[in-house]
Amino acid sequence: MKKLISLFAVLLFASSFSYAQESKVVEAEFKISGNCGMCKARLEKVMKIKEVKFAKWDKTTKLMKVAYLSPDITVDSLKHRAAEVGHDTDKFKADDAVYAKLPKCCLYRDNPTTH
Ligand SMILES: [Cu+2]
User: Most buried of 5, 14, 61, 81, CB within 10 angstroms?
Assistant: First the structure.
């Protein structure tokens, strides 16, 4: 019985903790390397998850503007998503193999352009 009560106490504590961390939409802006409209489409597509309410990347400034649910996800997790499809960020670099498979116009490391 004692064990059961302490189990309940733990559960109660855990649930009150999750109540305290209510999700809210926060905005952020961060740089992602890229070149063109195809990069834009790729980057905005990879940000399309339910925790992201808004995502827009500017090919001239290279800035990604997002509105996302915090603390459900983090900016770092979004930077990671960008790196996974071949785009470098300050935090995560894309795999060379993934980068090499990008269309020629998107190869921002070798030929930075904005067209
Ligand atoms: Cu591109």
Answer: 81
Looking at the 3D structure of the chain, how many domains does it have? 1
Query: Tokens in use for 1?
Result: 């019985």
Read off the pLDDT of residues 1-15 as tens digits, 9 standing for 90 and up.
666 666 666 666 666
Q: How far is the CA of 103 from the centre of ligand 1 (A)?
A: 7
The alpha carbon of 107 and the centre of ligand 1 are apart by a number of angstroms equal to 7
Q: Of the candidates 21, 20, 42, 22, which has an alpha carbon nearest to the alpha carbon of residue 32?
A: 42
φ, ψ at 29 (rounded to 5°): -145, 130
Report the CATH number at residue 85.
3.30.70.100
Q: What pTM did the predictor assign?
A: 0.81
Q: Has residue 8 been placed in a domain?
A: no
